[in-house]
Q: What sequence folds into this?
């Protein structure tokens, strides 16, 4: 049976001796193909095709079909195979059809300007059967195509070319020069492509966001791992840097600043207020941080500021301490407008400092020499309990005290004479500094006073001279409940003695304070004390 179709014809061959075997020979647009029908498979099977690929003959890919560099056919963007089953058999002459109609095709031939164009910019030559059109610019060429419902594509290089009804022989090139053709699409397809673009953009944004989250988690876990390296150095909490930064409101509430760093107030989630010290000084930060972690991590005493935790981020070192509500001792002794401390409070503060020093010198596994005992490093909690702070200058020595500190450390006015003379530094250097602080606690005055002449007067020496002359009133601040000012100033002068031989240890000072308290109580009840 022979049948004729537009642009071709076909021949169906039936074999009487093989009723189950049928062959179909088709000639279409210069392409010949032979297919066989198999009842066993229930479909056509391609036997041979000539030409064998789109590179060997024209019209191989049909209308709106494009020849790829590998010799296979594909549909132009916005089109799909007219006969998918034939395309699966490798027979592409049926070509491609629009996925969506043009706007003029759905409006009774009325031309609308809602159609869009897709650019094919890597073509080898131009498609078959173009029509020249007079146009001054590419925009005029485009408008000319849009105004004609049967115009399916345009190109503008040296002139305007239009294609009507169909596109044939669209071939993608493998090397320049390339040609550009704009293929007309339906208006609704542009919306669909827009939605696809939005979907792709959303997917990319989601992928980028996921990557950022994963990177943040990785950096967060890396920060934790960095902190965990120090976890074995003491029973301390390890805080992520982001949490400390959030707790301190980006380090905005500054409490004070010392020689080794700034201190900020913060509030950890679910806990009380804390004080965060950010160490500074690139040359000493790491060494200082490790020393404080190893030392303070195992030190737990009522009269020592407790280290709660720490964190490391790059070169940043953060120490998290318990918060002291009443600040430092100097703000209560020397600041104008601060309330005067009663004798009982001053006694408790002095006793607390003595107990704290006793623990540092004798209660720890290794003797800890603070090296910078002064009112600024004595903090007071809500109950005015004294706690020694800032071990930034601490030096660990063995109990044999054979090692010596060779570099002067501390604050002028509180330094023991052996710092200047070059003698070996022992725990009694802290005892000397404690004596100076004790004089300031009793007198309410700075140990070093600047005179109007510009010179300085060392108050402990001046007070000792006044006491020797019997002038007690000028040596005390006049605070409430003064017990025997002469004996108290004499007691304060003992640890500040120039000779280390006369300086008692912190443990003995704690016992001496207890005895002195008993004598003060007896004195207040009019018991006569021995002269």
A:
């Amino acid at each position: 049976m022979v049948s004729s179709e537009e642009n071709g014809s076909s021949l169906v061959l039936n074999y009487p001796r093989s009723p189950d075997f049928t062959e179909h020979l088709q000639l279409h647009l210069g392409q010949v193909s032979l297919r066989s029908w198999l009842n066993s498979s229930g479909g056509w099977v391609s036997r041979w095709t000539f030409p064998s690929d789109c590179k060997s003959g024209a019209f191989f890919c049909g209308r709106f079909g494009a020849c790829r560099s590998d010799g296979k056919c594909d549909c132009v963007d916005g089109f799909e195979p007219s006969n998918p089953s034939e395309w699966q058999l490798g027979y592409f002459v049926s070509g491609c059809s629009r996925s969506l109609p043009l706007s003029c095709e759905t409006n009774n031939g009325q031309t609308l300007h809602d159609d869009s164009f897709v650019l094919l910019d890597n073509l080898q030559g131009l498609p078959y059967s173009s029509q020249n059109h007079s146009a001054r610019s590419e925009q005029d060429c485009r408008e000319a195509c849009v105004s004609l419902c049967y115009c399916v594509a345009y190109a503008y290089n040296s002139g305007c070319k239009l294609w009507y009804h169909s596109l044939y022989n669209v071939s993608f090139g493998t090397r320049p020069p390339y040609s550009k053709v704009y293929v007309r699409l339906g208006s609704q397809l542009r919306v669909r492509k827009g939605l696809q673009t939005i979907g792709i953009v959303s997917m990319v944004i989601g992928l980028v966001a996921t990557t950022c989250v994963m990177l943040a988690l990785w950096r967060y876990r890396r920060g934790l791992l960095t902190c965990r390296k120090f976890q074995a150095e003491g029973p301390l909490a390890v805080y992520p840097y982001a949490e400390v930064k959030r707790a301190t409101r980006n380090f905005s509430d500054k409490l004070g600043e010392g020689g080794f760093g700034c201190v900020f107030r913060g509030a950890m989630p679910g806990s009380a207020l804390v004080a965060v010290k950010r160490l500074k000084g690139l040359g000493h930060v790491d060494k200082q941080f490790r020393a404080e972690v190893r030392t303070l991590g195992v030190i737990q005493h009522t009269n020592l500021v407790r280290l709660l935790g720490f964190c490391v981020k790059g070169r940043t070192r953060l120490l998290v301490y318990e918060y002291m509500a009443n600040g430092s001792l100097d703000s209560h002794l020397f600041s104008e407008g601060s309330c005067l401390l009663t004798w009982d409070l001053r006694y408790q503060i002095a006793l607390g400092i003595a107990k704290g020093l006793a623990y540092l010198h004798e209660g720890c596994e290794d003797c800890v020499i603070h090296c910078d005992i002064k009112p600024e490093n004595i903090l007071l909690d809500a109950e005015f309990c004294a706690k020694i702070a800032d071990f930034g200058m601490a030096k660990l020595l063995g109990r044999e005290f054979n090692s010596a500190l060779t570099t002067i450390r501390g604050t002028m006015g509180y330094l023991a004479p052996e710092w200047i003379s070059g003698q070996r530094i022992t725990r009694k250097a802290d005892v000397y500094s404690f004596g100076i602080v004790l004089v300031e606690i009793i007198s309410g005055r700075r140990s070093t006073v600047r005179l109007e002449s510009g010179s300085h007067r060392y108050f402990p020496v001046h007070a000792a001279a006044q006491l020797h002359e019997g002038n007690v009133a000028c040596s005390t601040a006049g605070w409430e409940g003064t017990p025997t000012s002469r004996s108290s100033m004499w007691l304060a002068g003992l640890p500040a003695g120039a000779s280390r031989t006369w300086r008692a240890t912190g443990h003995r000072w704690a016992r001496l304070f207890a005895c002195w308290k008993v004598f003060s109580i007896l004195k207040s009840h009019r018991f006569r004390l021995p002269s």
Residues 2-98 form one domain. The chain has a mean pLDDT of 73. The chain has four domains: 2-98, 104-185, 229-322, 330-524.
